[in-house]
Amino acid sequence: MPNEKTGEVTQDGHYLIIKGRRWRASDPGIPPKLRQELVDELMAARRAVKSRQDDARARVNDAKIALGERGQPWWEKSEPTAFDERISATIRALLRKRANSSICPSEVARVVCGDGDAWRESMGEVRRVAAEMASRGELTATQKGMAVEAENARGPIRLRPVSSMREASSGQ
Q1: pLDDT digit string (tens) for 48-102?
Q2: What InterPro entries does the record tag this protein with (predicted)?
Q3: Could you tell me which residues come within 8 angstroms of residue 145 by beta carbon, excluding any fewer than 6 positions away?
Q4: Which has the closest alpha carbon to 32: 119, 104, 111, 122?
Q5: How far apart are CA 66 and CA 82, in angstroms?
Q6: pLDDT tens, 19-51?
């Protein structure tokens, strides 16, 4: 029986009905640990909206896109630009959630492709989007703790927020 907070899920699983209003459900294919991190970031961003922080609405938007609650519906085949948007939103949301830590591109691929093995096929796209973000100065790609050019890096890389790289290089 649905309650007022969780609502009722539509038969196809695509929407929640809460107080008579239809809301898009988050992507059920997101692995639980990563889903929780994205939900935590969404809740923190919503609190930031209430306290009128400058980037709060962008944070909410990124978290909702990453969860599949905005943007192209997660149950449809993604258009390339919509897929890139979800990848970049997921990168930003996970980097914000982990603050001064790093993320692995494979975690982003698991969010946008689900818990099975399909994520492996999207690693090239995730790395391409990460490289574009790095070239715009939005993040830093690293290997063994050292900054690298993401588009030329071979082997595993990690993604870090630019500010944490500045702090690490200045010894803070």
Answers
A1: 999 998 899 999 999 999 999 999 999 998 899 999 999 999 999 999 999 889 9
A2: DUF3253, WH-like_DNA-bd_sf, WH_DNA-bd_sf
A3: none
A4: 111
A5: 11
A6: 889 999 999 999 999 999 999 999 999 999 999
Q: Alpha carbon 133 to chain centroid distance?
A: 13
Mean pLDDT (the chain) is: 89
CB-hemisphere CA count at 13 Å for 22?
Answer: 6
Q: What angle in degrees, to the nearest 10, is found between the helix axes of 80-97 and 32-50?
A: 80
Supply the pTM of this predicted model. 0.88
Q: Which helix (DSSP H) or strand (DSSP E) does residue 25 occupy? A: none
Both tokens assigned to 153: 């890096």
For 113-141, b/e burial (b = at least 16 CB within 10 A) is bbeeeebeebeebbbebbbebbeeebbbb
Considering only the top CATH level, what class is 27-169? mainly alpha
Q: What one-character-per-residue DSSP string does 34-49 give?
A: HHHHHHHHHHHHHHHH
Tell whether the model's pLDDT for residue 144 goes beyond 70: yes
Q: Residues 144-165: what's their mean pLDDT? A: 87
